[in-house]
Amino acid sequence: MSSPKVWFITGASSGFGRSMTEYALNQGDIVVATLRKPQVLSDLAARYSADKLLVLKVDVTKQEDIDEAFARTRSAFGRLDVVFNNAGYGIITEIEGTPDDKARELFDTNFWGATNVSRAAVKFFREVNEAGKGGTILQLSSVAGFNALPGLSYYAATKHALEGFSDGLAKELPASWNINICIIEPGAFHTNGMKGAVVLPQHPAYADKSFAGSVLRQMLEGVVFGGDADKFTRTVYEVVQGGNIPKRLPMGLDAFEMLNLRIENLKMTVDETKAWSADLKRADGGVEIIVPV
Question: Given a cut of 80, is residue 293 above it in pLDDT?
Answer without folding.
Answer: no
